Amino acid sequence: MIRSGNSGRRLAAIDEGPVDGPLVILLHGFPEFSYAWRNQVGPLADDGWRVLVPDQLGYNLSDKPVGLENYDIDALADDVLRLAESAGYRTFSLVGHDWGGIVAWWLALRDPDRIERLAILNAPHPATMTRYAMTHPTQMLRSWYILFFQIPGLPEALLRAGGYRMARRLLTGTSRGDAFSRHDLDHYQEAWSRPGALTAMINWYRALRKRRKLRSERVRVPTMILWGERDTALEFPLALAALRRCDQGRLFRFPNATHWLQHEEPEDVNHLLRAFLSSSPL
């Protein structure tokens, strides 16, 4: 475990693989933490990658500052750059799921010279989500929780109630039955229970009120999109919309997987990640 920080922001991160190997950073989403990539770290490290997996800001062992400005997308992207720099790297490959995917997209758009390869799991391109939802009522309905999370205090109280019953249900109720064991859920609950964690995690959504303009909507770096088609939060056309904005993009569909793709199909996900990151034929 390493801690990386600058300007008063510290991230805890798993650090595996050879210290002189090429760097790949794996970014988790809501409501997970670095444990989300437990099935991917070992195989990538075995391939010779230096693998850094942070608890993103507000999650688990990382800092949980107050103030929505701390969860601005540019600040979250800067955290990833500082993490890489703390390990001695200027360029690196990036893998992101859910909110981690949004941060990964943003970095590839804002700082394409820093990103060698980009892999996205069930996360929409930042330029597509609002446009798509405004013209597709079914997606607007699926995104109800974003508005719910804007209410002060209430989401935290409901997620915490009954021994984090609702928080656990966010995972088990939207995934296949084999995705999360009781042991896994206990790990997540321990992370959610840390002081300030729930508010910090939800502040990622509350900070959406302050919208940022993209420098470019085109992704220039080589990109692979993996998408579980049974995602209850994000409709599959968002994957197609993202692909259209990639100069060098490929999309792989998983018809029987949900939003929690890397948990449900770890072997196939690992095969695709290992081949893509090493530039091997897919």
Description of the structure:
There is one protein chain. The protein is of the alpha/beta class. It has a single domain (2-277), classed as 3-Layer(aba) Sandwich (Rossmann fold), CATH 3.40.50.1820. It is 41% helix and 17% strand. The chain has 12 helices and 8 strands. The protein has helices spanning 38-46, 73-86, 99-110, 129-135, 137-142, 144-148, 154-172, 182-192, 197-206, 237-243, 261-264, 266-277, and strands spanning 2-6, 9-16, 23-27, 50-54, 92-97, 115-121, 223-228, 249-254. It has an 8-stranded mixed β-sheet with strand order 1-2-4-3-5-6-7-8, with helices on both faces. α1 runs parallel beside α12. It comes from Skermanella aerolata. InterPro entries: AB_hydrolase_1, AB_hydrolase_fold, Epox_hydrolase-like. This is Alpha/beta hydrolase.
